[in-house]
């Protein structure tokens, strides 16, 4: 396993500290007037999503994590775990709701998602940034509702987004999963 020193650190690098995988989200090389240079970094845990501030000094080492990303198909939620299948080997993996996190509100049966594994254990799920979902519930339109307002819509995945008045129940829309916002109606 590769090891990183202070000079190797940069934004976006994946590192492992005390058996926990992190990603460097901010990086600052500091060279004070007195004393040795050091690196101040903000690192985000792949396990629980927490962001920590860590200082690295010359001579400090951190390991390269054993991370693997696989594209898998979401099958169903059994109440305790979300079940995913590798479409090549047909191997199934159950991931707890806590590890799936925010991605769950955008997932529908059959959707392809990216699963992150650390040392063979599934630790996270990432849905595509843009997904197409059907509106299953939204208030009806009324005369005069054509002026740029918004109304709530419940999607087939269970997520609720604000949509323009002219979009109706039963239509398919594109949604930005990062911001949780309506993008456009999918043409029929």
Question: Which descriptors would you attach to this protein?
Answer:
single chain, 188 residues, mainly beta, 5-stranded antiparallel β-sheet, 1 helix, 2% helix, flat, NA-bd_OB-fold
Question: Can you describe what's shown?
Answer:
Belongs to the elongation factor P family. It is found in: Cytoplasm. Keywords: Cytoplasm, Elongation factor, Protein biosynthesis. Residues 69-123 form the Translation elongation factor P/YeiP central domain. With 188 residues, this protein is an all-beta fold. It has one helix at residues 97-100; strands at 3-4, 14-17, 20-30, 38-45, 51-57, 62-63, 67-77, 81-85, 92-96, 112-118, 121-126, 130-137, 150-155, 160-164, 172-176, 181-185. The strands form four sheets. Strands 9-8-7-10-11 form a five-stranded antiparallel sheet. A five-stranded antiparallel sheet has the order 14-13-12-15-16, with no helix packed on it. Strands 2-3-4-5 form a four-stranded antiparallel sheet, with no helix packed on it. A hairpin with a 4-residue loop joins strand 15 (172-176) and strand 16 (181-185). The longest helix is centred in the middle third of the chain and has 4 residues, at 97-100. The termini are far apart.
């Amino acid at each position: 396993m590769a090891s990183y020193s202070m000079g190797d650190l940069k934004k976006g690098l994946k590192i492992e500290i005390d058996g926990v995988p992190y990603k460097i989200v901010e990086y600052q090389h500091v060279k004070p007037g007195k004393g040795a240079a050091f690196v101040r970094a903000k690192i985000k845990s792949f396990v629980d999503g927490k962001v920590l501030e860590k200082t690295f000094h010359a001579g400090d080492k951190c390991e390269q994590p054993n991370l693997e990303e696989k594209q898998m198909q979401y099958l169903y939620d059994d109440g305790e775990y979300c079940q995913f299948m590798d479409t090549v080997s047909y191997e199934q993996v159950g991931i707890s709701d806590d590890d799936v996190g925010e991605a769950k509100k955008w997932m529908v049966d059959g959707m392809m998602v990216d699963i992150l594994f650390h040392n063979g254990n599934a630790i996270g799920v990432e849905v595509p940034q843009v997904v197409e979902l059907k509106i299953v519930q939204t208030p009806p339109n009324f005369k005069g509702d054509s002026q740029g307002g918004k109304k709530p819509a419940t999607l087939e995945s269970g997520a609720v987004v604000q949509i323009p008045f002219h979009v109706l129940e039963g239509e398919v829309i594109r949604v930005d999963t990062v911001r949780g916002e309506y993008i456009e109606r999918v043409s029929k």
